[in-house]
Write a structure and sequence with these properties.
3-stranded antiparallel sheet, 17 strands
Length: 662
């Protein structure tokens, strides 16, 4: 079957210099990108913290001025020979005319060699002829691949230029599409891959899709806005959506997701008695009014906001952390809107402790970036971020907002100050460049996080809630929304963000929107003959993936079956350690030995092996036994009675199905 490739990218017009214009030059636009593309400025070479062989460049050539000085001035400028340009060390070492630990970088006479030689012949200048400012970069489809086009802001006009030769290209998935140094692409398999381009500190991306050529389903367009975006994404890849999960699977899934435990047999009956079109919504509404829901989602909030569990925290942290955990529990109980939660965290009340737990203003800035915006700013603490927009000076300026207040000589307190390390100069606070709007009067920091002409807070929250409920973040990792880490379903994430905005950031309404979608209700069974490791349906959300219960969910599930709390700790995260713990710790066995537990009650109050087996399966696995299971287990119950019932309960709870969320 013919494969179809779709290339999505902005289209640019070629750059033509005016006839009377001199050729502008900037070291940062011509030489720095060359040093990056050839690997000279990488962490493994001269971009390392201490450089290599006495020669240091900035990492990824993010500091062109420092690199220019290192090449032209350091050690009396011995790396550049203006009198005899061909004799310059900068040319002789990478061509192996002299010993070079980095090996041969390029050949004499190559394009890169001639570019460096020409620069030295022209006097090894930093700038010439008003080169302008690099404003943006994008990718233009061309000849089965891409050309990188840069736009420069000159004194009176904009100019476009093809910078493909100086651009670093990479693919987010080389098994689908391999991109070469010249921007050409080798297409390898169906699926989606993003081509990432980096030039002079700017990044651009474009998506490649190759269809799996599955026939689209013959069905009416979905009314649910999340499903409409999801199905459009699958259609663009030529994938058919999977089947919906069985009602008993959905009942168990929803209860574990929202209240951390399987449904009781009565709750299961109630769910199954509801009309299928309303069962998820009505059950979710009921569960979200419960104390169990508040405790489960307060724990999700705790992990999102990087607050430690009570077990194992340091003694000096306990008083403040206990207050913060209590605040989160009350926030979920009261259904506090998520924007208000962020305002509290950025304010001066009790919730401000989430930020003030971190002593250094830079740590606080990075924390706010990770948790409230889903942005990893940490790289820019030491150097300009190589794969994102953030520069070191922006990191410092944003951090200055989080400096502790200091006494005002006139009385009271005034804004804190952050001082540049090593210089003692005060850093002027500045907001992150997230949107085009200018801050209004008032709290500019809060405005910049929650509004500011962007939707980054909403994207961060929508992605996190989707990951909690569906088991797969659309942007992974959730604290790393950047150009070079695109969502697996961009339109789907946009749809969830719109639902977040429509509800005003109401967490229960956002949860309701997700759990009533068809993508939430998908079955997790793979298609026949499809290897799990390479199943595109799971990768692109055409079906759900089964996932293990978290340690807390597993313990609560056992307690739900037993009908009582247990003193044991939750099992470990490691699959092998968990299995050993389940078999040997007594978590299940001691629970089954407790007088009056729910399994023992089946033996006492349910007559007949057939009904006992059905009651046990509904209690433990939230479903009826299958014919083969009944045939295998009924003889044991008939012979061993209550003892056989307890042994079978242990086997079911120690098995894979009980310990996973399908």
């Amino acid at each position: 079957m013919r494969r179809v490739w779709v290339i999505a990218a902005a289209v640019a017009t070629p750059f033509f210099a005016r006839a009377d214009d001199p050729r502008p030059f900037h070291f940062a636009h011509e030489i720095s990108p060359l040093l990056v593309k050839q690997g000279c400025a990488s962490a493994e070479c001269h971009g390392a913290a201490t450089g290599q062989a006495g020669f240091k460049l900035s990492l990824f050539a993010m500091n062109p001025a420092a690199d220019f000085a290192a090449l032209t001035q350091e050690l009396d400028g011995r790396r550049i020979d203006l009198a005899r340009p061909e004799a310059s060390l900068l040319l002789r070492k990478p061509t192996r005319q002299l010993k070079h630990e980095g090996g041969r970088i390029f050949k004499k006479g190559s394009t890169d060699y001639e570019a460096l030689l020409g620069w030295i012949r022209r006097g090894a200048l930093f700038t010439a002829d008003k080169p302008g400012r690099l404003a943006r970069l994008w990718l233009e489809p061309r000849d089965g691949g891409f050309a990188a086009v840069a736009e420069f802001r000159l004194a009176k006009r904009l100019a476009k230029r093809d910078v493909t030769r100086l651009t670093m290209f990479s693919s987010t998935d080389e098994s689908i599409a391999l991109v070469h140094d010249d921007g050409s692409v080798t297409r390898r398999a169906p699926g989606e891959a993003w081509i990432i381009a980096r030039y002079a500190g700017h990044n651009a991306r474009a998506v490649l899709r190759q269809s799996f050529n599955e026939d689209p389903p013959d069905e009416a367009p979905p009314a649910h806005p999340i499903d409409a975006a999801w199905l459009a994404g699958l259609e663009s890849l030529g994938l058919r959506p999977g089947a919906e999960a069985d009602a008993t699977v959905l009942a168990r899934r929803l209860h574990i997701d929202l209240v951390g435990r399987p449904p009781t047999p009565d709750e299961l009956d109630t769910f199954l008695a509801l009309p299928p079109a309303k069962s998820l919504a009505r059950t979710a509404d009921r569960l979200m009014r419960s104390e169990a829901f508040a405790r489960v989602f307060a724990d999700h909030y705790r992990r999102w906001l990087e607050l430690p569990e009570a077990r194992g925290e340091k003694d000096f942290e306990k008083p403040q952390n206990t207050k913060l955990r209590r605040y989160l529990l009350e926030a979920v109980r009261q259904n506090k809107s998520l924007p208000q939660l962020a305002r509290d965290i950025l304010g001066r009340g009790e919730a401000a402790g989430f930020v003030s737990r971190h002593n250094d203003p830079r740590d606080r800035a990075e924390y706010v970036g990770r948790t409230l915006l889903g942005l990893s700013l940490g790289c820019a603490r030491c150097h300009d971020h190589p794969m994102d927009r953030w520069q070191q000076r922006e990191h410092l300026a944003f951090s200055a907002h989080f400096a502790d207040a200091r006494p005002d000589p006139g009385g009271g307190m005034m804004a804190g100050k952050l001082f540049l390390p090593g210089t003692g100069k005060a850093v002027q606070p500045a907001l992150l460049r997230l949107g085009p709007a200018a801050p209004p009067p008032g709290d500019a920091l809060v405005w910049s996080i929650l509004d500011g002409g962007h939707d980054q807070f909403g994207r961060n929250v929508a992605n996190r809630f989707f990951g909690i409920l569906v088991g797969k973040h659309l942007v992974d990792a959730p604290d790393d929304h950047r150009l070079s880490n695109p969502a697996i379903h961009g339109a789907l994430l946009d749809a969830v963000v719109r639902e977040f905005g429509r509800t005003g950031g109401d967490p229960r309404e956002l949860i309701r929107a997700i759990v009533t979608s068809r993508v939430y209700a998908l079955a997790s069974e793979p298609r026949a003959g499809q290897p799990l490791a390479t199943d595109p349906a799971a990768r692109y959300l055409a079906r759900r993936e089964a996932r293990p219960l978290t340690p807390a969910q597993f313990k609560r599930a056992v307690e739900s079956v037993i009908g009582d709390a247990l003193p044991h700790a939750p099992p470990p995260e490691s699959p092998l350690a968990r299995q050993l713990y389940v078999l040997n710790s007594g978590l299940i066995r001691d629970g089954l030995a407790k007088p009056g537990n729910a399994v023992a009650a089946i033996g006492d109050f349910v007559s007949g092996p057939d009904d006992q087996l059905r009651a046990l399966f509904r209690l433990v696995l939230s479903r009826d036994p299958r014919p083969g299971e009944a045939e295998a287990f009924l003889p044991t119950l008939e012979k061993q009675g209550t003892g056989g019932l307890r042994d079978l309960a242990f086997a079911l709870m120690a098995g894979r199905e009980f310990g996973s969320l399908r």
